[in-house]
Write a structure and sequence with these properties.
Layout: H1 2-16, H2 23-54, H3 63-69, H4 74-96, H5 98-109, H6 118-122, H7 124-141, H8 150-186, E1 210-219, E2 224-232, E3 235-241, E4 249-256, E5 260-264, E6 276-281, E7 286-289, H9 293-317, E8 354-355, E9 362-363
Antiparallel strand pairs: 1-2, 1-7, 2-3, 3-4, 5-6, 6-7, 8-9
Helix pairs in contact: 1-2, 1-5, 2-4, 3-8, 4-5, 4-7, 4-8, 7-8
Length: 383
Amino acid sequence: MLQKVKIVYETPLKKEYAYNPSANISKLMATFTRLDNLLKYALVFYTDIVGRLEKWDETTKIGDVIFKFSPFLKAYSEYTESYNEMVTIIKEEKTRDPVFSSILENGMKHNISKGLDFGAFLICPVQRIPRYVLLLSDLLKCTPEDHCDYQDLQKALKKIKEVADHIDAAIATAENREKLIEIQNLFSTPLSILPDRSLRAKVFVPGRRFLFEGNLIKQCRKERKERRFFLFTDVLWYAFETVPGTNSYVLSGEIDLLYLSVRDVEDNAIPQDKCCIEFLSSGKSFNAYASSQDVKMKWIQQINSAIEKIKQNQNTLNRAGVKEKEIAPVWQPDEQALKCPICKSEFNLIWRKHHCRTCGLIYCDTCAPRIHNSSDRICKVCK
């Protein structure tokens, strides 16, 4: 397959873009260099294996050949790390460059391609190592433990599994990077036109991985609004769409998972209150509503799993300075408060509503005075 890539795709592409290639094409050419290295290793490996098979008898060994070859398999890891980026580049260039698209179409029509497109060839090295693992596992099952090749096959399988694990990790890292880029692009609104209270969406943070996303109906102060939630390994984001249907978002909240907990709120008789999740944190607490019980439980499961892992890592690393913080109360929705629960005064344009920062309930100006010179208030009950 790798030899076919050189004939069908590498040669015409290098000829067409020999001078002043774009950044994307240059990256693609670097991939061909990696493929050339893989082909060299594969040919040496093939020659050694065939040499043993040609002199086959009951005492012939191939485990030592595979074990000797295993360090070179790390080249497959390097190739795999760039694979996802190459797939993205190919899609972009096919849309942008008619000449590039034509070369790929002609390659697929080539008699030795047998209808396979460029991507089908590029994925072959990614699939090779898992196939080696399966092959060696089957070979071990068919090899008696007292055979002279058994221990070498075991060592070879162990080494190749290590490479396979490294490749799996590289694939996961590459996929996570692509997803983070995708999310970053959702928050492309210029800072100059963002609302005053919006947060800057900084997606790329060391160690951060994407976990889960979806829409929930968040209980805001005056009404319920749809928000897009993004769960990462360290934080939970919620954002609003700038204009419906534009797929462009503004970050309105960020909660550190170390200080977050979620609670499954039991359904009551009111239909619109079903599938409620209570988000409790030191900075802000609120209720949000899922579209179904399944979605609700999925969110709770994902968040609790992420919280458990980050707290385990915190204990493992023995991080200093991380202390428990007080949980902010869930604010009572404005529409639920018609009068002050202490003085019974009815709320109106003059007699305004104020949330107590301790209990989250709504009181009047008199019954929930300001705390010193700040805008925060605490009701007389909580004082």
